[in-house]
Inverse folding.
């Protein structure tokens, strides 16, 4: 600041080396920076998902159409989900696991959502179809490959999920996520991102 | 290095122009009369090759953009249209796709040259840093370009990379959403990647101008690392000596380029990318283009948590760190000697470093759990959890025995039978090589300057050329050049 130091700094009671011109410089630069930031904001924010993209962030799925022992894959806003109709054997398998041995402990019930009447529906399992390792879509009954634990097998680096979508083996750190969804009727679910 | 200009306008027009916009003078001083060390070898020709690569990518890219459609429902078809229907479309696309690889080949040679001859040391730090900036921009450009043809690898490769960015702490998820413009890779992503893929090469061109400007302030380095002391004795004018030498190298380079374009255009391509993107089906092996493999290997090599930092995040940090470390190189290397010709220890460690980088490339291309080589013979393995829920493993040689044992276990044990192989995994190789990569920069570079005893260096460039006092290896420089300036 001393660059602009005036020859008579004390004449008008200012600190040595600081002048009104310094003040004007700082004030002007601040206003300019504020202006730049204000203009930059819309140019950054335009990168965010657009309104029509956001509007496509939920979908209804008729779970009664999913064949027993198989699954369907739903894309919502480009994000894939599994909706699986589990057999009784698969449900038993999911329930018989000793939770404390799991990498990401969770009971099978905690991975289900209640029907309109408040009861759980163990035959329908809804999970994210994104492997928690690096995001591949695991293979499942639809592809004829379910891995060692009967659930899903990720071909990318070999993660294995069980019939509750819990991680059992391989590099993935977490269970397949359970998306936000509700039963609107006993057969219709609504999944949202 | 840019001494007083020797340009003398001859015609009336050039005199008139020189007084108003000395652009001919600029060209003359930087490309004709620029004093260049007389001992540059062929490793110094890659700068010119790189400039040509950029021009080739821009020209072919602009042509492709005339036929390409950046829309997820049409992108793949438009690339097929370029390949089949557009006259010479196949040629232009193959030049562009292979050109990206050639560009990276050249930039890697150029960078290893810099590492070996200490080109990043004072006074060339800024020149080096601008080079690393160009390299980063190239990686971003190539990554986004690879998404455009909208094949399976385009889609799933970009999903993996954007997920990695999403794994960064705090800012990660927001940056990822802003990058994608949606919840997953889709139309908004493809459009912005196309826009940026078109833009970035011109940004690169801008940084290249700064790079060359910085070069012309401090002058070329040279294989001896000894600075130019006497412009007359140590240097020759750029033209014709280096225009011809660079030109010859360019001819060889273009020959190799053409062999790829015309005979092996898909040699480096992935067949999966000839299948249109399908978000619901991941290809079995997602691998980036060859030139990004070493970094992919570093990413995958981290399979362990350190304290509270999970493996995935560590991998991402290691990957970005392995590139960003190059910015600090001028200050990590403590040796005063530029050229490794006179650094016996550094030279050997450098060779190991190059091998490590190439090795990492192979690691990146292979499955982490696959074997580099196998030891012992395969056995059968039954895995189950015992009554206390602990994981147990038992080995067998015969299938009948193994299967009988598996069947004898209760269902709750969740027994599984598989082939157990033993050997040396790619994962382990990548961990060793990645460790060496970091140790080379963070430990060896700072340490060597202190402990290494360099060999005697020639007194001057002229000395090294005329008396061949250097390391004895003759440089391929224009030694017989007539002493033009004398
Ligand atoms: C630094 C320079 C550049 C690099 C490294 C680069 C790299 C790439 C790569 C790797 C691809 C994918 C090729 C494939 O597999 O098909 C690609 C595609 C494409 N690039 Fe570039 N590019 C560069 C400059 C440009 C420029 C300047 C433009 C436009 C002006 C452009 C336009 C395109 C288009 C339209 C495609 C899609 C068509 C296709 O896939 O062949 N590129 N680029
Ligand atoms: S992405 Fe599924 S195992 Fe790596």
């Amino acid at each position: 600041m001393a660059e602009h130091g005036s020859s008579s700094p004390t004449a008008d009671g200012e600190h040595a080396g600081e002048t009104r011109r310094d003040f004007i410089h700082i004030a002007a630069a601040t206003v300019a920076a504020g202006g730049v930031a204000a203009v930059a904001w819309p140019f950054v924010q335009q990168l965010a998902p657009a309104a029509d993209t956001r509007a496509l962030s939920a979908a209804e799925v008729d779970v009664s159409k999913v064949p027993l022992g198989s699954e369907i894959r739903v894309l919502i806003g480009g994000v894939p989900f599994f909706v699986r109709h589990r057999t009784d054997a698969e449900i038993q398998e999911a329930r018989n696991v000793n939770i404390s041995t799991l990498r990401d402990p969770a009971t099978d019930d905690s991975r289900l959502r209640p029907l309109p009447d408040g009861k759980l529906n163990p035959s329908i399992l809804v999970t994210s179809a994104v492997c928690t390792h690096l995001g591949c879509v695991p293979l499942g009954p639809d592809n004829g490959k379910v891995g060692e634990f009967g659930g899903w097998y990720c071909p990318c680096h070999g993660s294995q999920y069980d019939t509750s979508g819990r991680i059992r083996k391989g590099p993935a750190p977490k269970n397949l996520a359970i998306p936000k969804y509700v039963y609107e009727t006993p057969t219709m679910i609504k999944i949202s991102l | 290095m840019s001494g007083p200009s020797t340009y003398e306008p001859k015609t009336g027009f050039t005199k008139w122009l020189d007084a108003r916009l000395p652009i001919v003078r600029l060209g003359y001083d930087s490309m004709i009369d620029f004093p260049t060390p007389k001992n540059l070898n062929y490793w110094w020709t890659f700068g010119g090759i790189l400039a040509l690569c950029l021009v080739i990518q821009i020209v072919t890219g602009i042509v492709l953009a005339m036929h390409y459609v950046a829309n997820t429902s049409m992108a793949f078809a438009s690339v097929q249209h370029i390949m089949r229907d557009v006259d010479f479309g196949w040629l232009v696309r193959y030049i562009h796709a292979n050109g990206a690889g050639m560009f990276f080949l050249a930039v890697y040679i150029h960078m290893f040259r810099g590492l070996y001859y200490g080109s990043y040391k004072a006074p060339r730090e800024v020149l080096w840093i601008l080079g690393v900036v160009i390299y980063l921009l190239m990686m971003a450009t190539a990554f986004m370009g690879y998404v455009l043809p909208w094949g399976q690898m385009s889609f799933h490769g970009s999903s993996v990379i954007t997920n990695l960015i999403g794994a960064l702490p705090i800012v990660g998820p927001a940056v990822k959403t802003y990058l994608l413009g949606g919840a997953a890779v889709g139309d908004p992503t493809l459009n912005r990647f196309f826009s940026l893929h078109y833009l970035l090469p011109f940004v690169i061109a801008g940084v290249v101008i700064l790079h060359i400007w910085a070069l012309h302030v401090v002058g070329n380095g040279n294989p001896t690392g000894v600075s130019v002391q006497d412009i007359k004795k140590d240097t020759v004018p750029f033209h014709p000596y280096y225009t011809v030498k660079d030109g010859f190298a360019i001819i060889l380079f273009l020959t190799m380029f053409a062999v790829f374009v015309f005979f092996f255009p898909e040699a480096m391509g992935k067949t999966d990318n000839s299948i249109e993107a399908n978000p619901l089906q991941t290809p079995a092996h997602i691998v980036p283009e060859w030139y990004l493999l070493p970094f992919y290997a570093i990413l995958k090599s981290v399979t362990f948590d350190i304290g509270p930092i999970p493996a995935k995040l560590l991998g991402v940090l290691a990957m970005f760190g392995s590139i960003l470390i190059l910015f600090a190189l001028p200050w990590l290397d403590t040796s005063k000697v530029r050229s490794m010709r006179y650094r016996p220890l550094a030279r050997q460690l450098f060779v190991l470093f190059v091998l490590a980088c190439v090795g990492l490339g192979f690691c990146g291309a292979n499955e982490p759990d696959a074997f580099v080589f196998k030891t012992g013979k395969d056995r059968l393995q039954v895995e189950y959890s015992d009554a206390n829920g602990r994981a147990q493993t038992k080995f067998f040689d015969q299938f009948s025995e193994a299967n009988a044992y598996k069947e004898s276990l209760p269902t709750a044990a969740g027994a599984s039978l598989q082939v157990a192989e033993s050997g040396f995994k790619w994962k382990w190789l990548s961990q060793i090589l990645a460790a060496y990569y970091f140790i080379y920069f963070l430990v060896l570079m700072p340490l060597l300057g202190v402990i290494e005893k360099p060999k005697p260096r020639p007194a001057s460039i002229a000395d090294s050329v005329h008396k061949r006092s250097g390391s004895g290896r003759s440089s391929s420089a224009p030694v017989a050049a007539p002493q033009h300036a004398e």
